[in-house]
Amino acid sequence: MGTDDQTNTCSFHMSGALPAGGDHLGGTFGQSPTLDSWYPQRLRVELLHRNGVDADPLGADFDYAAAFATIDFTTLKSDIKRLLTTSVDWWPADYGNYGPQMIRMAWHAAGTYRIADGRGGAGTAMQRFAPIGSWWDNGNTDKSRRLLQPIKHQYGNALSWADLMVLTGNCSLELMGLPTYGFGGGRLDAWEPDDGTWWGPEVWNPHAVASPDEMVSRDERWHGQNGDADYDLQSPLAASHQALIYVNPEGPYSNGDPLGSARDIRITFTRMAMNDEETVALIAGGHAFGKSHGQVPASDIGPSPEKAPIESMGLGWHNPVGTGSAEHTSTNGIEGSWTPTSRTCSRTTTSRRKARPARCSGHRLTRRRRRLRTPTYPVR
What are the pLDDT digits (tens) for 147-189? Predict the structure, then answer.
């Protein structure tokens, strides 16, 4: 049939290297600036369906309690303890025992908890994702999780990353002679980063800094000066600095002020649901194990896991000096063991007695238990 339509339907051919023409690629889907850049104060209703069932890689019908119950718990703990004393060449164990670095991993997973909004903690293994996994305070925890990967592959979906990380901390303490109260499984993994939790007002540009040290700041979260009557940390925060789990070991202003450190420690750990006795046990006892690493300046360390190139396979903080590990490892800048008995819990480090339950209200106990997201499964 004929037509009187004289519309020109020939398209103009766009030159250039890109499929749609041109040579210069701009942004891609999800890249900033996005809606949140234009309207950062908008009501983000999409947060209500984070980790939704429809996109859950385990499926809507997966029953973690039933899967966890199939594990021979004694065998699992034996497998973990065997791994802790089996050093590997790509990341050798200090003194032949990975226990100390695994305790650090487990504590840093739990240590993000704060009582004001109940966010953070070890309950969903958020240390696997940014921003937490790429905080400067979590340097080289990526190696600890990679060391645990064979255990995770062996037990599969029956053992969540969150449970594995906490249980490995328990096994590490037991291996070094510290009695524990047992373990309760039941932590369900998150499968995507948490971009809803507010970790503080400070922002840093990883592309415009000379050292990872520069992500550690406290410029905007505090009101007043340490020691002033109006000294106050913004709620709901607990950590004294951006990119730290708790406080700066060099003092509030990196000036070595012990009294100022004591003020920040009490504020921070109280907001993490810990009393003074528990705080001393954690800081003194937790640092009685293992050693610190500081052979290379922070300015020489490579990018965090989130910013590392794809060929790094999810690992960050590359150290270009020597082997980059063992005697060339660098994490916190200090070099040397904490105590003469860094692989065992003895009276030269901390008491072998189990810690007494703190005298506090039931409400406080409930909050403290939530720090590790106390599960519903039996303690073993």
Answer: 999 999 999 999 999 999 999 999 999 998 888 889 999 999 9
For residue range 271-282, what is the model confidence (pLDDT) as tens digits? 999 999 999 988
Q: What pTM was estimated for this model as a whole? A: 0.82
For the stretch 194-198, contacts whose Cβ atoms lie closer than 8 Å and that sit 24 or more positions apart, written own/partner, are 194/50, 194/124, 194/126, 194/129, 196/44, 196/47, 196/50, 197/119, 197/120, 198/236, 198/237
Of 70, 80, 90, 85, nearest to 152 by C-alpha is 80
Nearest residue to 193 via CA among 239, 103, 242, 128: 128
Tell me the mean pLDDT in the region 213-239: 93
Burial of 289 (0-12, 13-18, 19+ CB in 10 A): buried
- Residue 11 is given by DSSP the state P
- Compute CA distances 121 → 52, 227, 304, 375, whole Å: 20, 29, 21, 13
Contact status, residue 187 vs residue 373, Cβ threshold 8 Å: yes
Write down all domains in the chain, each with its CATH number in brackets.
59-370 (1.10.520.10)
Q: Whole-angstrom Cα distance, residue 349 to residue 280?
A: 12
CA distance 303 to 287: 26
The answer to whether 293 is a known catalytic residue is no
Mapping DSSP to helix (H, G, I), strand (E, B) and coil, where does residue 337 land? strand
Please give the residue that has the higher pLDDT: either 122 or 291.
122
Q: How far apart are CA 95 and CA 343, in angstroms?
A: 7
As a whole number of angstroms, the distance between CA 369 and CA 166 comes to 13
Q: pLDDT, tens digit, for every residue of 328-355? A: 777 766 666 666 666 666 654 444 334 3
pLDDT at 341: 65
Please give the average per-residue pLDDT across 56-66, as a whole number: 92
Residue of 108, 207, 328, 363 marked catalytic:
108
Three-state secondary-structure class, residue 194: coil
- Cβ(101)–Cβ(342) under 8 Å? no
Measured between alpha carbons, how far is residue 181 from residues 356, 360, 364 in Å?
11, 19, 19
